[in-house]
Amino acid sequence: MTLPKATELPIGAVITQPGSTRRNLTAGWRTLKPVIHDDRCIRCQLCWLYCPEGTIAEIKGVFKVGNKTYDVKYEVIYDYCKGCGICANECPTKAIEMVPEP
Predict the structure, then answer these.
(1) Cα atoms found within 13 Å of the Cα of residue 70, Cβ hemisphere only
(2) What is the pLDDT of residues 18-72, one digit of tens each?
């Protein structure tokens, strides 16, 4: 019996692409959820970049926050967020707070 090479294996849980869990609702096991505070966000994109599941959406438009206007904001897609907290850990201004899930 010969075993298949790694390149011949079907895509599985270990070799999936980032964001692939957005095919299934995965928020059921989350105990903490990230909340983005727009007034502290500097739009550095680190939360969006580091999210392993691709659950931070970059929304384009015109957004007024206090006396500043931005052309982008970030929102968490809670249906797919697992609450790992990587986004909050990487945020340089601590604009993301992990709060208990109700």
Answers:
(1) 16
(2) 555 556 677 777 899 999 999 999 999 999 999 988 899 999 999 999 999 999 9
Q: Are 57 and 22 in contact (CB under 8 A)?
A: no
The letter for the amino acid at 58 is E
- Cβ(71)–Cβ(60) below 8 Å: yes
Q: What is the pTM of this model?
A: 0.74
Give buried/exposed letters for 77-86 (b at 16+ CB in 10 A, else e): eeebbbbbeb
C-alpha–C-alpha distance, residues 96 and 55, integer Å: 14
Please give the tally of structural domains in the chain.
1
In a domain, 85, yes or no: yes
DSSP secondary structure letters along 57-90: EEEEEEEEETTEEEEEEEEE-TTT-----HHHHH
Q: Is residue 9 part of a domain?
A: no
